[in-house]
Design goal:
GO terms for molecular function: endopeptidase activity; serine-type peptidase activity. Among the domains are: 87 residues, Pdz3 Domain (Roll); 239 residues, 2-enoyl-CoA Hydratase, Chain A, domain 1. It is built from twelve helices and 23 strands. Strand 20 and strand 21 form a beta hairpin. It is globular.
Length: 510
């Protein structure tokens, strides 16, 4: 889009989404694999000394070093980041599915903080914050000129304290002022219900530590309600990812035991791994296997998995595995395309580095990086085929994103940003908030149609392109019968809703 999210570093206030499979982090290796670049390190020391001696005012040593580390790690790719004390603590809280904050996902756009999405039932959601809002002031401070990190730190705080947001909203002339109370937010990542007799809907909004157990409980509850479920919809739309063990466990619910769910490959030996639908990869706890409590019918019930451009990372692991084994029909729009794994390396008692250590691959060896999962059935979010997904940010749009090592053409699509921006503005005026699992949820209704063997309303993009091609051909024929030109109608690859794309595995102890 024209106003592409610059300095993309999507952060949930109080929430840094799933970046570790456990909290058993390893310390950094004391030895380096290659000799240190002495000359470059000397230059770094010289600059450090110059700042200490000549800068206009004193600068704390720890601040300089922390910022140097942060800049070095951030220069690698969009998902590697240095975790200071506060970020490291928040990471630990997040994997448990709880955090203190306002409950909004944010990014930077044109110098302002843009609301990507309010978290369901959070203080921000209840206060009326909407996706697409721009925060222009925090209390009495102008956001213009702040970094995303500075803005986020100001919005964080203790429970029951307040912060006032001044918001600019499209099609609203006056600023909107909202005072929101910070709170401890416990996120419920699993929802489910019987849509109608015989057909169940399960939604996983993020892969957290409790997600597997919560999904097992929900499945058992639904089967107790209706023992003869004929079809199931697994909803992963706008699921930004999370913990790899959780994704493996949820995949294992529906797949045969011990089959490959995902493989990873990187520079170090521990990053070259094959993760299977086995307990050792989705649970480290003693006691009975959570999956042993499931009804046997769950392995064979017809399935549809719903995805969109906000489905990223661990969501793509699950949908990719179920697609490769033909266990489920994937329906929706092209996913985000984050095919890399981050590992948490602890570098002190309360700081660490979230480092991209591997790419991941589906069981058939497909790389998702900068490409995403292509649905079996391309169904847009609304019956009118609004096309909003083709205008949203994806992994391939992020600066310094990793290339797809299996497909050199992935992520190379050219986008007309001005046209995208104009089209997006037109669409957003008519869009209504999506209520997952409701009778107005168009994609869910199409999933039910497929499970029942009824017609599914597919996206009209291809049909429209064909029609345009025919019209152009007729026009050429009339103007010049000898003309043999054919129009080249290319359908844009859908792009993703900005999310908190992340999938992580624990670092191997050294």
């Amino acid at each position: 889009m024209g106003n592409k999210l610059k300095n993309f570093g999507l952060i949930t206030l109080g929430l840094v989404a799933g970046v570790a499979a456990s909290l058993q982090f390893s310390a950094m290796a004391q030895k380096t694999a290659t000799p240190l670049p002495i000359e470059e390190l000397r230059q770094l020391a010289d600059v450090f000394g110059l700042i200490k001696s000549d800068y206009v005012e004193p600068v704390d040593d720890s601040k300089l070093i922390s910022e140097a580390i942060s800049g070095m790690v951030a220069s690698l790719d969009p998902h590697s980041v240095y975790l200071d004390k506060k970020a490291f603590k928040e990471l630990q809280e997040t994997t448990q599915g709880k955090f203190v904050g306002l409950g909004i996902e944010v990014g930077m756009e044109d110098g302002f903080v843009k609301i990507i999405s309010p978290i369901e039932d959070s203080p921000a959601d209840k206060a009326g914050v909407k996706a697409g809002d721009l925060i222009t002031r925090l209390d009495s401070l102008s956001v213009k000129g702040m970094t995303l990190d500075e803005a986020v730190k100001h919005m964080r705080g203790e429970p029951d304290t307040k912060v006032t947001l001044t918001i600019a909203r499209k099609n609203v002339d006056k600023p909107i002022i909202l005072t929101i109370t910070r709170a401890l937010i416990k996120t419920q990542s699993v929802k489910g219900k019987m849509i109608e007799p015989g057909y169940a809907w399960l939604r996983v909004s993020q892969f957290q530590e409790p997600s597997l157990d919560d999904l097992v409980k929900k499945i058992n509850a639904l089967y107790a309600q209706d023992p003869h479920i004929k079809g199931l919809v697994l909803d992963l739309r706008n699921n930004p990812g999370g913990l790899v063990p959780s994704a493996i466990g949820i995949s294992a619910i529906f797949l045969p035991k011990d089959v490959t769910v995902v493989t990873t490959n990187g520079q170090i030996p521990e990053s070259k791994a094959n993760y299977t639908a086995s307990r050792e990869f989705y649970s480290t706890r003693n006691g009975p296997d959570a999956l042993a409590k499931l009804p046997e019918a769950i392995k064979n019930v017809p399935m549809v998995v719903l995805v969109n451009t906000g489905s990223a990372s661990a969501s793509e692991i699950v949908s990719g595995a179920l697609q490769d084994y033909k266990r489920a029909v994937i329906m929706g729009t092209q996913t985000f395309g984050k095919g890399s794994v981050q590992t948490i390396r602890q570098i002190s008692a309360d700081t660490g580095v979230k480092l991209t250590t591997a790419r991941y691959y589906t069981p058939n060896g497909r790389s998702i990086q900068a490409k995403g999962i292509t649905p079996d059935l391309n169904v847009e979010e609304t019956a009118e085929n609004d096309g909003i997904n083709s205008l949203r940010l994806r992994e391939a749009d992020l600066q310094k994103h990793l290339d797809n090592d299996k497909d050199s053409t992935a992520g190379t699509e050219k986008r007309d940003e001005a046209a995208d921006e104009k089209h997006a503005l037109e669409i957003e005026k008519t869009l209504k908030p999506l209520e997952y699992g409701s009778a107005t949820d168009f994609q869910l209704m199409q999933a039910l149609n497929h499970l029942k063997g009824l017609p599914v309303q597919l996206a009209k993009v291809a049909d429209k392109a064909d029609a345009e091609s025919k019209d152009d051909a007729k026009s050429d024929k009339k103007s010049d019968k000898k003309s043999d030109e054919k129009t080249d109608n290319k359908t844009k690859a859908p792009a993703a809703t900005p999310a908190i794309p992340d999938a992580s595995i624990p670092a191997t102890k050294k």
